[in-house]
């Protein structure tokens, strides 16, 4: 038996009132659709994943690439229609398909696995995942007969006032026998208030045919919440933040005011790390033992070494080795590789550059496109002049170099080991090892100049 998963992601997400197609909208800086695909892959309930795309499909396809197959729904005529367009991709009609909406980022692998197992062991033709929520507005209602047997799903817009009272709702996740699914879909119509082909109509059709229907109840309803607007997005994000932070704190990560701390789902944080308020750590970042991060810090796709202290700073696609300090107000912009025991201090920006151990740029420096050795000191205001308005050039700095304040190193340039750059120098020639380089106008003191000048002033009696 072949197992399929169909993810519905063709909708515009009109209620989001934004440009981005809804399922591409990020939650903790990761697109919603990526969560569900990852969880389906991890739970092994599908041999093949099909994503239904339509509105701005290139955005969704850019996110997911070729790890899934795509079915194109050119017009968004409803969830039932969205599944219909997958028919030609489902080869094994004796197999089963799990259908999930792309706007349900919090569902976890356990729920997916258990529901699928229940469907198979109970030999259901269709299983619907249901949950109970206090305010079921907007959700399809689960309608059961007096014996509690599932009869149909009635959409919010079609429900009678009494049906609207029902707080058991359709999560939008189903597992269905393929043959029955596509037969039933041929029977649905769009005679409803939204003029859409509702996938939910197949429940009553299969019930009428006396097929074996079942439900799988999800106790923690937040896991199956659908994100339809920016408000529900913020609720989902808060839930996810809470779940991730709780897990991290239990595993030995200290968080000061955790409600203000946002950690992405794929971030790894080792024990004995302290995270201070207003901090974001996202992407595939790794924070190693004993590091202290924040407050007010943003780290994305970066590796932070053991015992690093990083305060009030931004670190993007960079690596910081052990025992270094970053900030306050430093910017490791892109491709910075900071050696061990470095100090990257106030208002220092580093881009596409590496530094050896014990190097320091304590204040107001720009280090771009540079390879820097160990034990180098960048004075306040020193700059690698890497750009002539057209091209970028490399700076090579050896070991044990002292760069005085306000030095401009015009690249391409090589600064030899153990050299000394005088403050205020603008260098455009290489500096040999052990040399002092000085490139600035000599100072001239004109004795008594001001006194004489004052004597000549008219109003000076
Ligand atoms: C749907 C269910 C509702 C359930 C709720 C759970 C239907 C008719 N209703 O309502 O019973 O309680 O989910 O969250 O199924 N989509 C397409 N093509 C379309 C229409 C939608 O791909 O033509 C996709 C959307 O991109 C979205 C998913 O299907 O990812 C669900 O659509 P949405 O409009 O959010 O359905 P709900 O109104 O939330
Ligand atoms: Ca929805």
What is the secondary structure topology, with strand pairs?
Layout: E1 3-8, E2 26-27, E3 30-31, H1 32-43, E4 48-53, H2 57-64, E5 69-72, H3 79-84, E6 96-101, H4 109-121, E7 126-132, E8 141-144, E9 150-154, H5 161-164, E10 168-177, H6 178-185, H7 201-208, E11 213-217, H8 230-250, E12 253-255, E13 262-263, E14 268-269, E15 273-275, E16 280-282, E17 286-287, E18 292-293, E19 298-300, E20 303-304, E21 309-310, E22 314-316, E23 319-320, E24 325-326, E25 331-338, E26 343-355, E27 360-368, E28 370-372, E29 377-378, E30 383-385, E31 395-397, E32 402-403, E33 408-410, E34 413-415, E35 420-421, E36 426-427, E37 436-437, H9 449-456
Parallel strand pairs: 1-4, 1-6, 4-5, 7-11, 12-15, 13-16, 14-17, 15-18, 16-19, 17-20, 18-21, 19-22, 20-23, 21-24, 22-25, 23-25, 24-26, 25-26, 26-27, 26-28, 27-29, 28-31, 29-32, 30-33, 31-34, 32-35, 33-36, 35-37
Antiparallel strand pairs: 2-3, 6-10, 7-10, 8-9
Bound molecules: uridine-diphosphate-N-acetylglucosamine (UD1) and calcium ion (CA).
Residues 8-11, 22-23, 52, 73, 76-79, 81-82, 101-103, 139-140, 153, 155, 169-172, 198-200, 226, 228 line the site of uridine-diphosphate-N-acetylglucosamine.
CATH superfamily of the largest domain: Spore Coat Polysaccharide Biosynthesis Protein SpsA, Chain A
Name given to the CATH architecture of the largest domain: Alpha-Beta Complex
Model regions low in confidence, pLDDT < 50 over at least 5 residues: none
Outline type = elongated
CATH class of the largest domain: Alpha Beta
Q: Structural class of the secondary elements?
A: alpha/beta
Strand proportion, as a percent range, falls in 25-35%
Instruction: Provide mean pLDDT, rounded.
Output: 96
How many structurally independent domains? 2
How many strand segments?
A: 37
Which ligands appear in the coordinates? uridine-diphosphate-N-acetylglucosamine, calcium ion
CATH topology of the largest domain: Spore Coat Polysaccharide Biosynthesis Protein SpsA, Chain A
If you compute it from the alpha carbons, what radius of gyration comes out, rounded to the nearest whole angstrom? 31 Å
Largest sheet, in brief, is: 23 strands, parallel
In oligomeric terms, what are we looking at?
Answer: single chain
Number of helices: 9
> Into which percent range does the helicity of residues fall?
10-25%
Termini separation: 108 Å
């Amino acid at each position: 038996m072949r197992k399929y998963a169909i993810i519905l992601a063709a909708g515009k997400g009109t209620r989001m009132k934004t440009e981005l197609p809804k399922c591409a909208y990020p939650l903790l800086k990761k697109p919603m659709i990526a969560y569900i695909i990852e969880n389906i892959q991890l739970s092994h309930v599908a041999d093949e994943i099909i994503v239904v795309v339509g509105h701005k499909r290139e955005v969704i396809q850019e996110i997911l690439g070729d790890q899934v197959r795509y079915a194109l729904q050119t017009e968004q005529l409803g969830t039932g229609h969205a599944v219909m367009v997958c028919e030609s991709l489902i080869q094994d009609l004796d197999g089963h398909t799990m259908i999930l909406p792309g706007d349900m980022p919090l569902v976890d692998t356990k729920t997916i696995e258990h529901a699928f197992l229940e469907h198979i062991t109970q030999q259901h033709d269709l299983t619907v995942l249901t949950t109970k929520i206090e305010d079921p507005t907007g959700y399809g209602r689960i309608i059961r007969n007096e014996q509690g047997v599932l009869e149909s799903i009635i959409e919010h817009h079609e429900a009678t006032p009494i049906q609207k009272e029902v707080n058991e709702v359709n999560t939008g996740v189903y597992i269905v026998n393929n043959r029955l699914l596509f037969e039933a879909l041929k029977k649905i119509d769009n005679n409803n208030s939204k003029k859409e082909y509702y996938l939910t109509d197949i429940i009553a059709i299969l019930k009428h045919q006396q097929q074996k229907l079942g439900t799988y109840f999800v106790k923690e309803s937040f896991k199956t919440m659908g994100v339809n607007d920016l408000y529900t997005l913020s609720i989902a994000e808060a839930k996810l933040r809470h779940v991730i932070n709780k897990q991290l704190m239990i595993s030995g990560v200290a968080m000061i005011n955790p409600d203000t701390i946002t950690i992405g789902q794929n971030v790894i944080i080792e024990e004995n790390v302290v995270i201070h308020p207003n901090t974001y750590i996202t992407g595939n970042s790794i924070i190693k033992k004993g590091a202290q991060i924040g407050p007010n810090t943003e780290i994305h796709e970066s590796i932070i070494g053991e015992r690093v202290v990083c305060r009030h700073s931004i670190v993007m696609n960079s690596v910081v080795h052990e025992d270094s300090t970053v900030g306050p107000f430093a910017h490791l912009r892109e491709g910075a590789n900071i050696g061990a025991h470095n100090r990257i201090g106030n208002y220092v920006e580093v881009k596409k550059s590496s530094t050896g151990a014990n190097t320091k740029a304590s204040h107001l420096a720009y280090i771009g496109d540079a390879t820097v050795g160990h034990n180098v000191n960048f004075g306040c205001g020193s700059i690698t002049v890497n750009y002539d308005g057209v091209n970028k050039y490399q700076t090579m700095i050896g070991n044990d170099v002292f760069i005085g304040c306000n030095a401009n190193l015009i690249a391409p340039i090589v600064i030899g080991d153990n050299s000394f750059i005088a403050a205020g120098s603008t260098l455009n020639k290489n500096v040999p090892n052990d040399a002092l380089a000085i490139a600035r106008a000599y100072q001239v003191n004109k004795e008594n100049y001001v006194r004489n000048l004052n004597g000549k002033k008219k109003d000076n009696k």
